[in-house]
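ok trying this again, last paste got cut off
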Amino acid sequence: PRRSEGQGSGFIIDPQGHIVTNNHVIENATEVEVVLNDGKRHKARVVGRDSRTDLALLKIDTGGPLPYVELGGSNEARVGDWVLAVGNPFGLGGSVSAGIISARGRDINSGPYDDYLQIDAPINRGNSGGPLFDTSGKVIGVNTAIYSPNGGNVGIGFAVPAAQAKSVIQQLITRGEVERGWLGIQIQTVTDGLAESLKLPHTRGALVAGVEENSPAALAGIQAGDVILAFNEQEVTEMKDLPIIVANTPPGKKAQVTLWRQGAETKLEASISRSKESVADATSTAKPQTAEGARLGVVLAPLNDELRRQYDVPADVEGALIVQIEPGSAADQKGIQAGDVIVEAAGNLVSAPGDVVGVVRASGAGDRVLLLVNRQGNQRFVSVQLG
C-alpha cells in the first residue's frame, strides 16, 4: 500500500495544548504530528472532528503550559476590516499575509452550515486550519478554503467565523462530538415568484418543502408550504440562516417558530430534537393533457408500477408524473425535469394529471401556479408562470 503525507496549519487555544485545525487536514490520517514554531515535534491525538463545519481538535502533551491565542468576536467584524492570515503555505513554515474582509455570510456549497468570512489576504495550499487575526490580535476565523480556477491564490479565500468555531470546539472538548438541534424539514429559497404565489409581502424566509413524519416540525404542526420567518426570535432573512439557527439550538429546548401560512403570520412552538447526523388503471400511457398541459410546458402521465421503476419514483409518492418537458417552456426554465412528480398544485393534493389540468384551466394567462414537486424523494416548491 502507498503511504502519503499531507500538511496544513493550526493554532493552540489553551495552555493544555488543544489545537484547532481543519477536518480535511487530518481526515483519514493514521498518524498526526505537530511541529511548533520553535521546530519541536509532538505526536498529536485527535480529540474530535466535525465534517459539517470542517473543523477538528487535536491535543498535544508537552509536560508544561503552552502559549496560546484567543478566539475573538467575529460577529463584530465588518467588511473592509484588516485581517492577518497565518499558516504554513506550501510547507514553507510560519507565514503571514495581510488583507481585508471582503464579505460575510458566504455560502460556498460545502454544507448546510456555510457562513464563511470571505477574505483577500493571500492563502494557499497548506494554509488550511490556520488562524485569521484581527488587528487586536484575536482570532476571528479559521482559514479553510480558496476559490481558484488554477489552484493558486486569486484573492478569494474563506474562513470559518470564530463565533461558529467556538461552539464546535467547546463541544469537541467536552464530549468529543458535536450535538446539533434538528427540526425535520426540507427547505428551499423563497424567490420573487414564490413570494408572489404565497402572497408574501417580502421575499424572505425559508420555504418548507417537506416535513418528516414524527419529526419536531410535524409534531408542532408545521406544514409544507409554510414560510418560516423567525426561529427563537431570530429573523430568518435567507434560507441558509435557518439550518444554522436550528443547529445551534440545544436538543430538548422549546423554540418559538414564526411562519407565514395562507396569507397571514402565525406562531407555533416546536420541541427541538438531537440531529440524526450527530450519531440520514395501472397501464395508462402518457399523452399530452390538452392545451392546459402545454401552458405549463409539460407532458403528464398517471403513475403506475412500470413508470415508477423507469423514473425511480418512491412507492409512497403520489401525484402526476412529468414524462416530457418542452424546451424553453416555463417549467423548463424553473428546472423541472422529466421524472419529477407534481404532488400539489396551488395548494391542492394531486392524485392524477387531471388535477393539475384543472388548476391550470382555472388560471389565466400570465398567472403563477405554485407546484410542489417531488424528485426521487426530495420535495421543493416551484412557482411557474403560465403561457
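PB: full thing came through this time. Confidence is low (pLDDT under 50) at residues 278-291.
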